[in-house]
Amino acid sequence: MQHRPTRRVVLGLLASVAAAPAALAEAPARSLRPVARPFGGAASPGETRARLPERPESLLEGSGLSGDTAWAVADLKSGVTLEAVNGSEDHPPASVAKVLTTLYALEALGAEHRFRTRALATGPIRNGVLQGDLVLAGGGDPTLSTDDLAEIAAQLKARGLREVRGDFLVWDGALPYEFSIDAEQPEQLGYSPAVSGIALNYNRVYFEWKRAGKGYAVSMDARTERYRPEVAMAEMKLADRAMPVYTYADRGGRDSWSVSARALGRDGGRWLPVRKPADYAGDVFRTLARAHGIVLKAPKVTRDLPGGEVLAEKVSPPLAAILRDMLKWSTNLTAEMVGMAATAARDARPPASLRASAEAMSRWAATRYGMQRTAMRDHSGLSDDSRMCVNDLLGALVAAQKSGALRPLLKTIPVRDPKGKVVRKPEIHVDAKTGTLNYVSGLGGFMTASDGTELAFVIFSADTRARNRMSQAEREGSDATRHWNGRAKMFQQKLIARWGTLYGS
Questions:
Q1: Where along the sequence do coiled-coil regions lie (predicted)?
Q2: Could you name the CATH architecture of 93-114+317-387?
Q3: Sheet with 68-75: strands ordered across
Q4: CATH number among 3.40.50, 1.10.3210, 1.10.10, 3.30.450, domain 1-19+57-91+389-505
């Protein structure tokens, strides 16, 4: 059942917006003078529409948003753009870019595509002993978890394997290696981990601290609800300092962290990014194999896949389900891995780098949807160097909806009243992708108005000057950025309310 905002809520949103004149870079695509149409209710059509600002720019003038904002909305049935302000201006799309990545991956791989993580044997098994190497071969699955590795270990045990005479190899060459999705992000942020052809727990390791006497006991593990194996390839040391809170170093092939003991406070924990995904997966799998009675040597990482017999494998959910979760939770690692997998499928070989894959996606978007101004630097939108204009993405949304594959994957966005409270029974239904960086906010997708009118829309806002003034340490968040982003989201709600009343009554 669809939930829609009452007309009173819609008009309340709009009545709070000032109607001062403005001079924005691009005029609306057509006249926006409301045409009165009957729609019932206490107010007459003329009275209701008289409360709407004739110029959509008036909404922006009353929003208090600094920086630049652009938006566009189109009728899905006809494809006609109903309103466009600054539609050809370039903006960082933030995570709204994942909509484009979704379309790219669906076309290149197919909705039913599944990723496979395999355990290979380079020799025969005799009396429970493998006379060769065991290879944990990553297949680009962004959803691989500790539970999944435990399942592979259980399959090996069922095959009668107890010992491996050769080496234990981890292959991560299905995709290129990247130290971080966006190197400009603070090192400790779990949403910008390393990327490679194998990933475990979204390439995050759990750091936990508990008070012990006058200090703390700390641990690093690869926990799930079922397992909590400690890891050896990542370590944490306490430091007697105020700042920085975290530091990272590569020491002897290990992820070596330090943390300010003064910043820890009470017992707690957080996910930290993994910079050596293959070592991480190998470390955890070796522990799980030992728990199943299988003895392995320390893992060695290889970029060359050895041939061998498949002893066990874990198959991922279908791509459509993976993409739905990616759009719901805005998982950056998933976007990068499925984006690079799509490029690899199109080119019949892995891309040279994450950026090269993003550039290939941009060229595809220009050819497929006419997105000539789109220039992506990644597949997730985490890099603020990526650029997209609302007109480009709007055209892709209109074209993509003909297949009907995209909208069911998008998250339903709650409609809020002028005080920010979620409307329980809204008249407008919105399915879209949000995008948030410091001083960057976006929203793009589809909406159904109260009369059933289907619209596609895109909204981008960014204050790049304010963002560029931030230090790297400040990028984990601040009151100022939260305030700005809150204003941007409220402005998005006012635009949606406007469109629902103007074009859907």
A1: none
A2: 3-Layer(aba) Sandwich (3.40)
A3: 81-85, 68-75, 454-462, 440-448, 429-437, 411-412
A4: 3.30.450
CATH 3.40.710.10 in the chain: give the residue spans: 93-114+317-387
Task: Indicate the pTM of the whole model.
Answer: 0.89
Tokens read off for 361: 């996606």
| 116-315 CATH, one of 1.10.260.40, 3.50.80.20, 1.20.59.10, 3.40.640.10 | 3.50.80.20
Which residues of the chain does CATH 3.50.80.20 include? 116-315
Element containing residue 479 per DSSP (H, E) = helix 479-503
Q: What is the pLDDT of residues 326-374, one digit of tens each?
A: 999 999 999 999 999 999 999 999 999 999 999 999 999 999 999 999 9
Q: CB neighbours (10 Å) of residue 369? A: 20
Q: Which residues contact 444 (CB under 8 A, 6 or more apart)?
A: 93, 96, 99, 390, 393, 394, 397, 432, 433, 435, 457, 458, 459
Rounded to 5 degrees, φ, ψ at 119 are -110, 120
Query: What is the DSSP code string of 40-96?
Result: -SSS-HHHHHHTS-SSTHHHHHTTT--SEEEEEEEETTT--EEEEESTT--B--GGG
Instruction: Decide the pairing of beta strands 168-171 and 134-137.
Output: parallel
Backbone angles phi, psi at 91, to 5 degrees: -140, 155
3-state secondary structure 439-461: CEEEEEEEEECCCCCEEEEEEEE
The amino acid sitting at 418 is P
Alpha-carbon gap, residue 277 to 144, rounded angstroms = 12
Q: Are 152 and 144 in contact, with CB atoms under 8 Å apart?
A: no
Q: Is residue 220 scored above 80 in pLDDT? A: yes
- CA–CA dist 488, 474 (Å, integer): 20
- 401 to 60, 144, 373, 394, 405: CA distances (angstroms): 28, 30, 21, 11, 7
Summary mean pLDDT of the chain: 89
